[in-house]
Design a protein that fits this description.
218 residues; three-stranded parallel β-sheet; alpha/beta; Rossmann fold; two-stranded antiparallel ribbon; 11 strands
Length: 218
């Protein structure tokens, strides 16, 4: 049986802009022995081309875009497998857009079937619109960001209220005390939580298995 490798990146191959000792020699040995391997990342912002260039600058040569598989690519593969012909409203920058376009998933700002959230800059208007789509029934797979892949943040950081705490109940008529005033609305710049992807009509139960990105490069 031939052995291949699925390799994490941040903290395994590099940390910030520095290779971890032994990482370059390890990848060079894989390339020299024609051992299949694939770098995985849950950062949706960079494209495979971006990652190949980044590792090249850090000192690992000979990599191509086919050596990388991102959460943006995973999201696109999941959507096209479970719901061919779907559309999506996208919040995020960088790799999420080309990953969806490569799978022929249009960016729909009127009646999307899904709301997809990746990393990068966004605005209050786009967050509000995404929340409206979710309320109207769109499902919301998310390219999960991590500490190395920041969540979408506002390009105009003015506080915006999404939810407010309930006001206290009115005082009893027999009580001489006044009810305390309702606390002010809670400002939040975090995007509203998206529901898990719903099962499209007539499709099977979604699989949690990692989808195959295609042929694994040598």
């Amino acid at each position: 049986m031939k052995t291949g490798y699925l390799i994490d990146m941040d903290g395994v191959i590099y940390r910030e802009n520095h290779l971890i000792p032994g990482a370059a020699a390890f990848v060079e040995a894989l390339l020299a022995s024609h051992t299949p391997f694939l770098f995985l990342t849950n950062n949706s912002a960079p494209t495979p081309d971006d990652l190949a260039v980044r590792l090249g600058h850090l000192g690992i040569k000979g990599l191509t875009p086919r050596h990388f598989y991102t959460s943006a690519m995973n999201t696109a593969d999941f959507l096209i497998e479970m719901d061919p012909g779907c559309t999506a409203y996208v919040i995020g920058e960088g790799g999420i857009h080309p990953a969806l376009h490569e799978k022929k998933i249009p960016n729909d700002s009127i009646t999307p079937r899904y709301v997809v959230i990746g990393g990068g800059m966004t605005t209050v208007e786009r967050l509000t619109k995404a929340h409206e789509f979710l309320d109207r029934g769109a499902s919301g797979p998310t390219c999960a960001p991590t500490s190395s892949s920041p969540a979408p943040h506002l390009s105009n950081p003015s506080p915006t209220t999404f939810t407010s705490p309930p006001a206290p109940p009115p005082a009893s008529p027999a009580s001489p005390q006044k009810s305390p005033p309702a606390p002010p609305p809670t400002a939040s710049t975090a995007p509203p939580c998206a529901r898990l992807p719903s099962q499209p009509p007539g499709r099977g139960t979604p699989s949690a298995d990692f989808p195959s990105p295609g042929s694994v490069p040598p």
